[in-house]
Predict the 3D structure of the following.
Amino acid sequence: MPGVVALRRDGEVAVITVDNPPVNALSQAVRTGLVDAFSQARDDKTVKAIVLTAAGRTFIAGADITEFDKAPTSPTLVDVIALIDAIEKPTIAAVHGTPLGGGLEVTLGCHFRIAAAGTRLGLPEIKLGLIPGAGGTQRLPRLVGMEKGAAMILSGDPIPASEALALGLIDEIFEGDPAAVGIAFARKVLAEKRAILPVSRRDDKIAPLRADPVKFDAIVAAHAKRARGLHAPTAAIEALRMNLDVPIAQAIERERAKFMELRGGEQSKAQRHIFFAEREAAKIPGLSKDVKPREIRRAAVIGAGTMGGGIAMCFANAGIPVTVIETKDEALKRGLGLVEKNYRASAARGAMANEDVDRRLGLMTGAVGLDAAKDADIVVEAVFEEMDIKRDVFGKLDALTGPDTVLATNTSYLDVNAIAHTTTRPSSVVGMHFFSPANVMKLLEIVRGADTAPEVLATAMAVGRKIGKVPVVVGVCHGFVGNRMLRARSIEAERLLLEGALPQDVDGALTEFGFPMGPFAMSDLAGLDVSWRMRKAQGARAEIADQLCEMGRFGQKTSKGFYLYEAGSRAPRPDPEVEALIVATSQRLGITRTPLDRKTITERLIFPMINEGARILEEGIAQRPGDIDVIWVYGYGFPIWRGGPMFYADSVGLPYIRDRLIAFAKLTGDKRHEPAALLSRLAKEGGTFGGLTAKAA
Ligand code: T1G
């Protein structure tokens, strides 16, 4: 065994330990080591039971995803688990941390599974555009039943050890060292002469479905609806269906064939790209490992509006006491009331226990006046998007907070450097741009000011991870990364309306592309008045949106915007009045309307975003193309199975995008469509965004 798998004896019990940091991924070496170790233990007559454990922070966390772009090598994980499954001595998996994917599948080849308290177990393959590829779709339902088995496989979400015990996925929860407890458990099994039956031969939880297959369809129906555009969920459902009528050995073969097909497909490659890009985004080139984040014991949020309330919930959810500060008691009460209403609604949906709600509310304190922020280790300002107001707040925070307090602004596009320079310590100032609703959206843009100290940057990143966000460092410019690219798309969306499209054509093109919502439905949801106020402040104009605002049509909040909304419904309905307004505007502007097909609309919306992304990289506003992909997948609903705008651009081909941009520039006369220098260079050289190396933002 090449060092990553060790076999030792403790009397009549063989102990096999995987040690392949950082997460004991099932590399070829680990799989080979497992075959050797289990074969030896099986063939040694003096061994009466076998315990499988792992060293380090977690039991096996799955197949080695870095091997997925290479040709498969032997032994396959199916081979390893088949060998374990056939052993006629008691086999016990003693797990801790996150036994996920192939890691959990290995334990399903054992007779017993015991887990340390705090262990989370799951089959997350669907999140990588895959299905379990080593028997998971056949063995998990045999242990926990189809309902729970399908839910775990189709959601990809892990479950806590307590739930796993209740479901019968594990046999015991323990405290202490997995190997020691595993050996004791093995001895108990031997002493009690417990019957051992491989999971692959247990049928009691599946038999009822065989008798009534319609039940299976009912179980998977809800999941099938959410599969929009994704290949893996459909494949997972077909694999699960094999439990009903395909012998398990054959089913596992077919499952692996489907897994291999998905593994080689574009969707999984894109989703694996996001998996690694999200982790790369946490690395800041040039930030020395010696720079340690400051400890955050208490936070303060300035502003109890929608954003401030959501941000305060993020801190409370992470167990960090937080003071929410307003200028008037009435605004404070309204804000905190909305927070409580949000939490109670989650409890009513069963998404959170009431005691959890009480605990989180107990971590929140309301206060009037900035003085209440004086003891905070981090302050997040979430006041009105007006520079004067922000300047005033930061000037006061500078005077009343401690020298080590991190001063963060939640501005979504204003100049963080200008805000920083209203303080005597610009090095303490950083942007933390949350996305609405702040307690739900995963993305957090960490805006690095020219003077932001490395320690302050590291602290903001650490806080971002602590409160469950995906933090990405961005530089200072109007709109940073996400909103700057969104603006490129919004300008083009308006232009398309004048050229011949209707809101439903534009939105339809993007929902077909995979976005949950198109730009006009999104504007109606956010409120047209929000961007109208920004445009007026900048002296910019959006022909159609401005007219709608002048008519008081602000979107869902006024039941009318680009679309009509029936009372109590959020479903957008095309409005002939808006169509007439659009046609009249084209006429007034002397534009002859022409029909635009879906492909053209999609390219006109997506390619300018990619072009803006290329400029953002040229200017060093983003560290790497993968950061931009993470921003758009986690902040704006870019379909994860397309890998984000820059990964998608590489899959389309940069020469084609360059040529289309040149055509758009001619068609519209808009110079911003001229291909960015970086995009032109890569297109010319046959390069890709993915081939670029990271640069500090
Ligand atoms: N393969 C390779 N590298 C991995 C890895 C994996 N499965 N999981 C994590 N890493 C790397 C990661 O890139 C990072 O590297 C470091 O480990 C720490 O990860 C056959 C086919 C386990 C919950 O999907 O969910 O099994 O940046 O920063 O926050 O059916 O990692 O340090 O260079 O995320 O403590 C199924 C994926 C695979 C689990 C730990 N398994 N991993 O979280 O650390 S498919 C998964 C995670 C499969 C079978 C199928 C998390 C974690 P670096 P980290 P963490």
